[in-house]
Amino acid sequence: MSRMTVLSPSAGSQSACSLGLILVNPRRPLRSLSILFGLWKALIFLVIVICPGLGYDTSTSLLLYPTRDLSDVDPLHFPLSLRFVRWDSIYFVHAAEHGYVFEQEWAFGYGYTRLLALLASVLVLYRLSVNIFGGDTAKQKTLCFLSAALHIISPAGAFLSAPYGEALFSLLNISGLYLYSSSVLDAATNHRLSRDLKLLAAAVLISAATAVRSNGILGGVLFAYDALLQLPQILSRGLSLAVVSRLAVIVLGGCVIALGMAVPQYIAFNAFCMTSNAPRPWCGWTIPSIYRFVQEKYWNVGFLRYWVVPNIPLFLLAMPILALLLRSAFWAWRLPSVTSKFSENGANGALTKAMWLLPRLAIIQALLAVLAFTSYHVQIINRLSSGYPLWYWYLAAELISDFKNSQSTNKCISISAVAVQAIMIYGLIHAVLFGSFLPPA
After folding, report:
1. Where are the transmembrane segments?
2. Dist. CA 119–CA 172, nearest whole Å
3. Is residue 363 exposed (0-12), middle (13-18) or buried (19+ Cβ within 10 Å)?
């Protein structure tokens, strides 16, 4: 009988486990997250590239052949990069190349078209998670790692790999939240100068995020919340130099965020309303806003305007993420139980202070969900959600809890694991639809 080398099942399992530890190892988060990011992006890229033809909508081809009949153009001659230019990205690319030529282009973030780039906010989210939950214990490290890993497979899918605003918005918004959380930690250790400088830097980043996507203005809730926190001190102790200086920094930060929305509107006002031509209708509004006007006129965006029978499938498509956003916002309010769950071995005061950010972030996320449900094209919540970290933390916490429970109860089915699998499947299916220029956008 000839001798054969047979790989036993146990050996195969050990090899698989070894490979898994290389790819997913919370002890080496930066390397592991970078590998996961590269693999997932490569898969999304491959799916989009192999989609055949020009797509259902051929608008992308106008970027290359604005005056040519497409019937005599071989689809194989189109650059592969154009497969990533779908839906709103056509506006982004055109504005980046030619400037803001048409009125409706002002609906798309002014900041992003001045800096087209593929940016990842995964590593920043990991550092933000460490600020909030700590990174000393195994449970804390796992939570932070899983949160960042979930951001990689965000339901935004192909939009985070295409010339859209979502990737840059996520980077700027999460970076702003990271600096904001760092300022809170500095406040807990009485480093006032560092606290104020980081708070203003956070405002600058959130303002830049607002210039990319208008929903970034919700970040102003953090500063409004901080301002309200000063009222009890003023009422009980009166005005002091420390309170006045703190309030001044907070108000200045809030004004900086508002500039992210106001400056593009001012530029548009000068372009359309301060000329010899007949002014546009919105120029005479009490608060002129080209953004609001073009959203209403060209996309029919407004309160309950999307609530029509043909859009029911889009509401159903958005419901899982809407439910996840609201559920995680409610979870964040349960601060005592959350603190006890992740603050093992006696968390220090600074960590407890940082975790008080969770209710503030819950307000922002809940507002986003309500606005998406009542006033937006509801399906875009699947990509808008990518820049908000709270639901990543919630889902990561549920994964850890479900895994722990499965070990004690031998329960195989985990709702959180099913949710993650559904997000991954949706991301792959959406990549096919995106590459073929098919809805949803």
Report:
1. 4-24, 35-55, 115-135, 143-163, 165-185, 199-223, 249-269, 306-326, 361-381, 418-438
2. 10
3. middle
Locate 8 and state its tokens: 């036993």
Q: How many angstroms separate the CA atoms of 91 and 89, rounded?
A: 5
Choose among 207, 211, 206: nearest CA to 165.
211
Which token pair is 274? 């301060």
Domain boundaries, the chain: 28-63+79-435
Pick the closest to residue 179 from 120, 150, 222 (CA basis): 222
Distance of CA 8 to the CA centre of its chain: 44
What lies within 8 Å, CB to CB, of 400 at 6+ separation is 139, 142, 143, 146
For 221-262, how does the pLDDT look when each residue is reduced to its tens digit (9 = 90+)? 999 999 999 988 888 888 888 899 999 999 999 999 999 999
Q: Cα–Cα distance between 358 and 364 in angstroms, integer?
A: 10
Angle at which helix 390-409 crosses helix 415-435, to 10 degrees, equals 130
Q: Which two tokens stand for residue 239?
A: 């005005």
In percent, the amount of the chain with pLDDT more than 70 equals: 73
- Which residues are within 8 A (CB) of 169 and not within 5 positions of it... i.e. 6 or more apart? 109, 112, 209, 212, 213, 216, 387
pLDDT at 79 over 70: no
Question: Which among 89, 110, 99, 98 is positioned nearest to 66, based on CA atoms?
Answer: 98
Rounded to an integer, what distance in angstroms lies between the CA atom of residue 182 and that of residue 88? 35
Task: Give whole-number Cα distances, 386 to 109, 121, 238, 334, in Å.
Answer: 16, 10, 42, 23
Quick one: tokens of 131?
């600020």
User: Containing H/E element for 52?
Assistant: none
| Cβ neighbours of residue 390 closer than 8 Å, sequence gap 6 or more | 325, 328, 329, 332, 358, 361, 362, 365
Range 135-144 average pLDDT: 88
What is the 8-class DSSP label of residue 59?
G
Query: Could you tell me which of 99, 88, 90, 101 has the C-alpha nearest to residue 63?
Result: 90
Average pLDDT rounded to a whole number, residues 375-400: 94
> Which tokens in the block code for residue 42?
């490569």
**Model-wide pTM > 0.85:** no
The DSSP string of 160-205 is: GTSSSSHHHHHHHHHHHHHHHHHHHHHHHTT-HHHHHHHHHHHHHH
| The one-letter amino acid at 327 | R
Q: Which amino acid, one-letter code, is at 297?
A: K
The one-letter amino acid at 4: M
Count of all residues that appear for the chain in the document? 441
Is residue 424 exposed (0-12), middle (13-18) or buried (19+ Cβ within 10 Å)? middle
